[in-house]
Amino acid sequence: MNWVSIRLEKRLDTPRWLNAVTPVLSVLAALVFIAVLFYILGVNPLVAYRRIFMGAFGSLYGLSETLTKAIPLILCGAGLAISFRARVYNIGAEGQLLVGAIAATWVALFVPGIPDPLRLPAMFVAGALAGALWALIPGLLKAKLRQDEVLTSLMLVYIASELVNHLVYGPWKGAQEWGFPYTDKFPPSAIIPHLGTTRIHYPTLIIAVLAAILAYYFIQRTRWGFEIRVTGENPEAARYAGMNYLRTVLLVIGISGALAGIAGVGEVAGIHGRLRYPQGISPGYGFTAIIVAWLARLNPLAVLLTGFLISGLLVGGDAIQLALNLPAATVHLFNGVILLFVLSGDLFTRYRVRIEFPARMAPAVAVRPGVEVKE
Predict the structure, then answer these.
(1) Lowest CB count within 10 Å: 1, 268, 276, 286, which one?
(2) Are 23 and 345 in contact (CB under 8 A)?
(3) For the chain, domain boundaries
(4) What are the residues facing 9 on neighbouring strands?
(5) What's the CA gap between 80 and 149, in Å, rounded?
(6) Above 80 in pLDDT, residue 139?
(7) How many angstroms separate the CA atoms of 309 and 66, rounded?
(8) Sorting pLDDT into bands at 50, 70 and 90, what band is 158?
(9) Residues 8, 352 contacting (CB under 8 angstroms)
(10) For the chain, where are the E strands, in sequence order?
(11) pLDDT given at position 324
């Protein structure tokens, strides 16, 4: 009995239009799926999506909050886009963000003698270095010992989280915080200025935009960027061409960790003005940035747009929790479904579906040379 054969076949070349259309269709499919879930929960999907849009973009306050939450997403997303381009799957940006926040707090509260104008720059440098060094641990394990960086970078998130808990419940606990797990407040010289009355800490926003632009230039216009792209497309070919695999891995994961560390500085010095318990510093920005990077097709410049849009979903998700009495896990539902559909869509840019129908069986006929056979 003959059966129809359906299989996935790797594409030799992916059309540009398919790369551009796939993320849009993936997000639309995810929103349709989420709408079905809303309906099952007894919530009108149109009302829910209207609440999300108005909560994130329908007022100056909503826009300012969306832009505020976009800052760490753009920083972490741009770094992850570089790392993922080299097939170095750094899943630990959340931990690198927390370590950057710890380093910034140390400079703000426990390093005397720094002139006031230099304290904030020193905090940014310390946060970037701490994030990079934390990221280099899984990078070295991958490059030297071939250990899975997905697992090692993820495990380091929990170590960083417990380190923050140890500090805010222990030696760094503020004397005037009435027992809450906070450090003392930062001095004024260690607070990042805001834009007007909003929470937008604009120096960090400027750094985030510049980081995305420079990351794009670095990937597309430099020799190291070329090596990163070649390593990501074919690691064995890169080794055969004499490209230094160890240097490439450490470079991309170090940049990724440094940008996540800067995001941590922005959160403690621009939003909270002190170090807090881990969920108080970051509600999962490092993990959400994975969606930002993949939705941008690992293009650091496109991260500016996708970071803003995903930030809008975070702000809008908070709005519908209050307005429609939905659980706090609603935001995580958004993130998980969108990531699932984006990764599924990415599969179809790399592979095509090949459907083969069984050929019609014809009787065997002996044919002499020069004789035409008619059916």
Answers:
(1) 1
(2) yes
(3) 13-356
(4) 352
(5) 13
(6) yes
(7) 8
(8) very high
(9) yes
(10) 5-10, 351-356
(11) 75
